[in-house]
Amino acid sequence: MPLTPDEFYDHAVAAADDEQRLPLARMTGWDISPFEADGLRVSQLRPPVVPEPPRHGEDPADCTSCRRRDEGIWLDDRWRLTQVQGVGVPLVLMLHPRDHHDLADLTDDLAAEMGVLSAHLARHVQALPHISRCHVYRIGDGGAHLHVWLFARPEGQAQLYGSWLVVWDDLLPEYPAALAEADAALVADALVASYGGRRGPAAG
């Protein structure tokens, strides 16, 4: 059985210093880290808050994603694809179910569709010129409506490997919007050809 919230907190702070700051993560020593270890320090670990605050869209009536169910650069009857604006890497896309679902309550059929769609999208993103990898993430702490992130890692940028990519994305200057929109359209057209569905309005 996992530790209770209080037990987890007590276990963690037992390894912390007098200010309840944990040591720097091993990841900060990796050569792909966007930060130099000198001068960095870990934030204080705060005590648990239980029950946790609700995520956005716990109630489908208040869910922004549900209100935008007909928006996206690509749609079919059950899924939609949107482009995330204002990012630092060449392209960030997001796959959403059109109906209100989180990952754990997907039917087996929807879960299978998500896997197939993710594979198609990864192929199409990686087929873009100068893109080496498509990173796929599902986190789910901020929003109750399932959303799967797809990040295009630019070719030749070995420092952007791995789990630091989303941090680098936040540090890099905004990628040229016209180029990102053109590449998003190429991915959407390729998805129509390989999987089906249709192009949609770009908002959302």
Going by helix content, strand content and strand pairing, the class is alpha+beta
**Biggest sheet details:** 6 strands, antiparallel
Strand content: 5-15%
Would you report the number of β strands? Answer: 6
User: What does the average pLDDT come to?
Assistant: 94
Please report the distance between the alpha carbons of the first and last residues: 40 Å
Question: Count of helices?
Answer: 5
What series of H and E elements makes up the topology? HHEEEHEEHHE
- The radius of gyration is 20 Å
- Proportion of residues in helical segments: 25-40%
What does this structure look like?
The chain is α+β, with helices and mostly antiparallel strands. 28% of the residues lie in helices and 14% in strands. It is built from 5 helices and 6 strands, in the order ααβββαββααβ. It has helices spanning 5-13, 64-67, 108-126, 165-171, 177-194; strands at 74-75, 79-83, 92-97, 131-137, 148-154, 198-199. A 6-stranded antiparallel sheet has the order 4-5-3-2-1-6. α3 packs across α5 (177-194). The longest helix is centred in the middle third of the chain and has 19 residues, at 108-126. The radius of gyration is 20 Å and the shape is globular. The model has no long low-confidence stretch (mean pLDDT 94).
